[in-house]
Write a structure and sequence with these properties.
mainly alpha; 57 residues; single chain
Length: 57
Amino acid sequence: MDMSPAGTGRMVVALTLIGLLVLAAWWTMEPGKYRSLTLVLLAFFAVRVVLGRLRSR
C-alpha cells in the first residue's frame, strides 16, 4: 500500500476511519439533530478526502 501523500493508501485509511466513526455515531447516538449533524460533518470530511485525492492526481 502506497502511503505517500499522493498515494491511495492514505485515502483508504482515512475513509475507513471515517466509515467506522459513522457506524459508531449511528449505533451510539440517539436519533435527532445531533446525530444528523455528526453524520453531515463526517460526510463533509469524507468528501474533502476524496477531493484532495482527485486534486493530487
